[in-house]
Amino acid sequence: MNIKKLLFVTKFEELGFGALQSLLILRSCSLEHVVFLYVIDREKVALQRGVGFKKDEQIRLKEAANIRFIDWAERLFETGMEVGVYIQVGSLAAEVVNATRKEGADLVVIGRTHKSALEQFYSGSTVTDLIRRLSVPVLVYKPAPEGTSALAKPFERPLLATDWSPASLRSVAYLKGMKRIIQEVQVVHVIDEKRIEGSSVMQAQKAHREAKTRLAETCASFEAEGIPARSYVYVGDATEQIDQAAQECQASLIVLGSSAKASWVERFIGSTPRAIAEDSVFPTLLIPPERFPTS
Amino acid sequence: MGKKVLVVDDDPDVRLFSATVLEENGYTPFEAANGEEALQMMRAEKPDLVILDVLMPRQSGVRLYRQLKTDAELKNVRVIVLSGIAKISFLKSQQALAEFGQGAVPEPEFYLEKPVEAETLAETIKKAIG
């Protein structure tokens, strides 16, 4: 899987040029085109009682974004990169999906969204919405935690959390495509506590051994591509344990497959990819399962 | 009918501005909102001049200019680059692409940085195609 074109979705305060620069390492994996997208929240300029449509505000926001993008584009053009830009008024998820389809982007990069729990319950999570509607991976970028170099080289030490789902298997293939920029992959599987609760020691050990065997196979497939890999088994709540594993392995990025649940299901029971993407301090690369075109 | 001029810009306000200047000065404007659309129109309409933006979706003016100048049929079409991107960055981008083995292309004869006054645009168009 090659990443030729990247859609960089920014509101500027959470995702700046520094973040973009750290992604330019992907040029060694065939990145040649960056498309910027800035979405002006419709509610900021929409028709409001007593105010009407705030045309002046829309122009101000568009021009402010344009000035920043011109500066960024000049720097990228000068290195021979191809650059495009969209400044749109609308809803974030819908505009990201539109731009991704129009451009044929291979990777979408977004910052962490800041919706409250109540907002997420009623309007859903942007990350969930994107994963459900896109067939390309989504990288949720975060500011580097203090004292780490995660931002400088985000793909150097990825931690792949696998449950051997189709999306997890696609994640393996995706990481193999980045072999030129990966130093070492950490592969982790979290055994659900409930699976071994009340079971015998033998059953618990069997679950552990099975996981180790499958992880060893995954590591071997990375090693065959020339990517050093190590495996770990954790037990407990998947979200907590993946985050803990990332800290203990000094990962630069968490990678996980994401099988999109129906939005109403997710609002009530949540999802590990969404929780990691929105709550972990680590940048998170979410890989959706392969989607086949429907006739 | 006046000389044909293709205006390539993703911003409809800029297209309207340029088209108005062109019409007021006796030219016939055509419009394209991105590089791909522009290339199709160029082949169909054979314009005398192209007014080209740089930062656009789908295909930038940097790549379109390069395509134009390496196309046997289109390389003699005059071009005015009209963009918010500084001329130096445009030239450096062409230089970088040439270094990556894509071959050198001539510098644009006319380069205007946005915002531009109507009089300046009209004068430059006149210099380019009379």
Tell me the CATH superfamily of chain B. Answer: Response regulator
**Cα end-to-end separation of chain B:** 14 Å
Radius of gyration of chain A from CA coordinates: 20 Å
Specify the number of helices of chain B: 5
Which pair has the most extensive contact?
A: A-B, 19 and 21 residues
Question: What can be said about the biggest beta sheet of chain B?
Answer: 5 strands, parallel
CATH class placement of the largest domain in chain A: Alpha Beta
Shape of chain B: globular
> How many strands appear in the DSSP assignment of chain A?
10
Task: Describe what you observe in this structure.
The complex is a heterodimer of chains A (295) and B (130). By secondary structure, chain A is of the alpha/beta class. Chain A is built from twelve helices and ten strands. A ten-stranded mixed beta sheet of chain A has the order 3-2-1-4-5-10-9-6-7-8, with helices on both faces. In chain A, helix 7 links the parallel strand 6 and strand 7. The longest helix of chain A has 24 residues. With 130 residues, chain B is α/β, with parallel strands linked by helices. Chain B has a single domain, classed as Response regulator (Rossmann fold, 3-Layer(aba) Sandwich), CATH 3.40.50. In chain B, strand 3, helix 3 and strand 4 form a beta-alpha-beta unit. In chain B, helix 1 crosses helix 5. The model of chain B has no long low-confidence stretch (mean pLDDT 95). Chains A and B meet through helix 3, strand 3 and helix 4 of A and helix 4 of B.
